[in-house]
Design a protein that fits this description.
The structure holds two protein chains of two kinds. Chain A is an alpha/beta fold. Chain A contains eleven helices and ten strands. Chain A folds into two domains: 30 residues, no CATH class; 271 residues, Aldehyde Dehydrogenase, Chain A, domain 1. In chain A, helix 3 runs antiparallel to helix 5, helix 4 crosses helix 5 and helix 9 runs parallel beside helix 10. Chain B is of the alpha/beta class. Chain B folds into two domains: 268 residues, Aldehyde Dehydrogenase, Chain A, domain 1; 180 residues, 3-Layer(aba) Sandwich (Aldehyde Dehydrogenase, Chain A, domain 2), CATH 3.40.309.10. Chain B is globular. The chains are: A alpha/beta, B alpha/beta. Chains A and B meet through strand 4, helix 10 and strand 10 of A and helix 9, strand 18 and strand 19 of B.
Chain lengths: 316, 502
């Protein structure tokens, strides 16, 4: 940050505009905080880390989230499950669409941050555009996937029997490290489209967009606690993400076989549903489908007797 | 008129049921099913690659009739070498035959197995009852027909998989290692084998060590049906044999039905592999009776929920929540009804409650009954006489149970019911969902909107409204939370055996 200030004062002197020094305003730098329960606290640990760009520039002082932050986030996420899953699917759809609108409106900021995180302008634009479109895609699914994956089951006895998907509950997500915006959006959207809530660990090395995305969420009528975003180190936090007894499912998006093994082992504690998205190209159609939604759904089957009087013949 | 009504004193609530009188000279005459309609070999080998093979250890263990403690037969004890043989046979059959076979032909084999099962239904029911202790009327009317129907159902899926998953192609996983429990041995074998074969996988299946006989009979049927060698391999043994299946490097999928503890061990064991798993584990189902429910039907439902198959049912309704206003009535009627349950010889067609599956399980149930008493709950058991030999437990209920009591939290897996009371909808939902399990649940009320409110909010994979313990091949079954994952039955039961290709 000191560098920034020097640079701007240098510019001033280069131009020889001594008089305008006072009118040249100093850039206000953003503090990148975490997002828990619809609020932007700093990590309770008071720790930070400094991700750097390829050129060695420090991106920001980013919160180095702790296990306690994660636990706080799970409390928020758990508290939000009932309200969010209880919303009409149509309403969830509207909110996801609203998220896309907000993202579109702040496109420039995201492109700028992606460029700071070493993307070319063209690639940054592409990533932001795809992220917006992905939200629209899942906004559309919110009230449709249920019909696709439900069934009325023709049981042999005199019962009405049907099976429907329901959200599994709280999902902990270790987001893709590479595609820091598109990957993040692609894993969050199907989870919340299906009525779950989540705690997400953003890309460690490229965390800027994740925090800014939290601001998008915050202005999209998405209830606080539905998505909670932490920044920090997967190596430190992954085990807590899968250890927690009040988490129903874990999604892991990297291909570290040791971590994958650890996740599956620890998931046994309360039989979390585990999904690995380790080989998915988020830039293609492979990166979106209703099957991603189904990865954090449970199938519930309901039975009720049908009155069987007078032979219960057809009404023909 | 209005005045008259207003003046009318509220009547003391009168019971409209007459207490059943059991002191009658009318008795059920014994109606035993005949053992002679079934053949049980003296000894069973392992069914590997389409033939019966001796275990490499040459060791056999006894399987007994839990109602008499008499030895029925002895079965091979498979070790890791036998498991390896079976997996190799399954892999070979998968690569060379089953994967390549047109789906329509695959379907016909499964249909054929189902048909032979129907033809041998009586024999299978007898063997099931002898080996496991369940009442013959249950094995005859439920276990065996439902098992055959399951195969029929999935047989028809084999050549229709492209319709099951929109916008995706499907591929089988390869070799499925399957481990079944002792409570519904043949039915669980059908639940495992049917979807696996229909989706093009081959199978190594191990039945529980106390109830292997009907699964071995199924192996005979498979042989009779001329299923290509190695497509289904059946090996017997205890926990170690199961572990050898789970840990075998060339198994692609594990399907397990059993205890939550073992399920967790399996989940840990396959960490670091690409094995897919379906776990169908324990339960502690809440069964909720509201004051507006048809009480007599609800009591019948409670009896079916907890005493079906001696309570050896993972989805048994073992936690009864009764709305306070009707609790006394429900408990009184339940006690009356329990008195009329016939406990005894499983081979008798009148028997309602048969033998406990094993001495080990009886010990567990008795341990929990002692815990219930110690916790201060009020115990009531039917006064029925019990046979002197075999493993038996009277139908038992505990009332005045607290939510925190172990008998309200832990799975007992026997004919023991814990009764709790509640006042409001929100309270009972809170209590019902306060369990690490989530396999099944039940609700009894006459109000449609309340049914849907409750069934939606209960965190369980199968919810029965105004009924309980109903099963069907078309109906997906499986749990939430620590009751496991994956579904068996219905369209949803195909997915655990398939890869979806974009």
């Amino acid at each position: 940050m000191e560098k920034e200030i020097k640079k701007s004062s240098l510019k001033v002197s280069e131009n020889g505009l001594e008089k305008t020094v006072s009118s040249k305003r100093l850039e206000v730098l953003k503090t990148y905080k975490i997002y828990i329960g619809g609020q932007f606290p700093r990590t309770e640990s008071g720790r930070y880390y400094q991700p750097v760009s390829a050129s060695g520039k420090i991106l920001a002082n980013v919160c180095l989230s702790s296990r306690k932050d994660f636990r706080d986030a799970v409390v928020s996420a758990r508290g939000a499950v009932s309200g969010w899953s209880g919303r009409a699917a149509f309403n969830r759809s509207q909110i996801l669409y609203r998220m896309a609108e907000m993202l579109e409106g702040r496109k420039a900021q995201f492109i700028d941050e992606l460029i700071q995180q070493d993307a070319t302008k063209a690639k940054a634009e592409k990533e932001v555009n795809l992220a917006i479109d992905r939200l629209i895609y899942y906004a559309g699914w919110c009230d449709k996937f249920q019909q696709l994956f439900s069934a009325v089951n023709p049981v042999a006895s005199s019962h009405f029997n049907f099976s429907v998907p329901e959200p599994t509950g709280v999902v902990s997500i270790i987001a893709p490290q590479g595609d820091s915006l598109l990957g993040l959006v692609s894993v969050i959207a199907p989870v919340i489209a299906g009525g779950n809530t989540c705690v997400v660990l953003a890309s460690e090395t490229k965390p800027l967009c994740a925090v800014t995305f939290a601001e998008v969420l915050n202005s999209s009528d998405l209830p606080g606690g539905v998505v909670n975003i932490l920044t920090g180190k997967p190596a430190e936090l992954a085990s807590w993400f899968v250890d927690h007894m009040d988490v129903n499912a874990t999604i892991y998006c990297e291909n570290n076989s040791e971590t994958k093994k650890m996740i599956r082992e620890k998931s046994a504690m309360n039989l979390k549903r585990i999904t690995f998205y380790d080989k998915i190209n988020w830039y293609t159609n492979e990166g979106e489908s209703p099957y991603f939604i189904m990865d954090t759904q449970e199938i519930k089957t309901t039975w009720h007797p049908v009155e069987n009087i007078a032979g219960a013949g057809g009404g023909y | 008129m209005a005045k008259a009504i207003a003046k009318k004193k509220p009547l003391a609530k009168k019971s409209n049921t007459i207490k059943l009188n059991f002191d009658t000279s009318w008795e059920y005459a014994p109606a035993p099913e005949s053992k002679s309609a079934a053949t049980i070999n003296k000894q069973y080998d392992l069914f590997i690659n389409g033939e019966w093979q001796q275990p490499s250890s040459k060791k056999y263990f006894d399987t007994i009739n839990p109602a008499t403690e008499e030895k029925l037969s002895e079965v091979a004890d498979a070790n890791a070498a036998d498991v390896d043989k079976a997996v190799k046979a399954a892999r070979n059959a998968y690569d060379k035959v089953w994967k390549k076979m047109p789906a329509k032909e695959r379907a016909k084999y499964i249909f054929r197995i189902a048909r032979i099962m129907q033809e041998k239904a009586r024999e299978l029911a007898i063997v099931e009852t002898l080996d496991g202790g369940k009442p013959i009327k249950e094995s005859r009317d439920f276990d065996v027909p439902t098992a055959a129907n399951h195969l029929f159902y999935y047989a028809g899926w084999a050549d229709k998989l492209e319709y099951a998953f929109p916008n995706r192609r499907t591929e089988p996983l390869g070799v499925a290692g399957q481990i079944t429990p002792w409570n519904f041995p043949l039915l669980m074998a059908a639940w495992k084998i049917a979807p696996a074969l229909a989706t093009g996988n081959t199978v190594v299946l191990k039945p529980a060590e106390t109830t292997p006989l009907t699964t071995l009979k199924l192996a005979e049927i498979i042989q009779e049906a001329d299923l290509p060698p190695g497509v289904v391999n059946i090996i017997t043994g205890a926990g170690e044999t199961g572990a050898a299946i789970v840990n075998h490097a060339d198994v692609n999928k594990i399907a397990f039905t059993g205890s939550t503890n073992v399920g967790k061990i399996i989940q840990r064991a396959i960490a670091g592999t690409n094995k897919k798993a379906t776990l169908e584990l324990g339960g502690k189902a809440a069964n909720i009776i509201f004051e507006d429910a048809p009480i007599d039907q609800a009591v019948e439902g409670v009896v079916n929920a907890i005493f079906f198959n001696q309570g050896h049912v993972c989805c048994a309704g073992s936690r009864l929540y009764v709305q306070e206003s009707v609790a006394k009535e429900v408990i009184r009627k339940l006690r009356d009804r329990m008195q009329s349950l016939i406990v005894g010889d499983p081979m008798d067609k009148n028997t309602d409650i048969g033998a406990i599956n094993s001495r080990e399980q009886l010990n567990i149930i008795q341990k929990y009954i002692a815990i219930g008493k110690k916790e201060g709950a009020e115990m009531y058991e039917s006064s029925c006489a019990l046979p002197s030999k075999g493993f038996w437990c009277r139908p038992t209920i505990f009332s005045n149970v607290a939510q925190s009591n172990r008998i309200a939290q832990e799975e007992i897996f026997g004919p023991v019911l814990s009764i709790l009371t509640f006042r409001t909808d929100d309270e009972v939902i809170e209590k019902a969902n306060n369990s690490p399990y989530g396999l099944s649940a039940g609700v009894w009320t006459d109000k449609g909107s309340k049914i849907f409110n409750m069934t939606k909010r209960m965190r369980a994979g199968v919810v029965w409204a105004n009924t309980f313990n109903k099963f069907d091949p078309t109906s997906p079954f499986g749990g939430y939370k620590e009751s496991g994952f994956g579904r068996e039955g219905g369209l949803h039961g195909l997915l655990p055996y398939l890869k979806l290709i974009n």
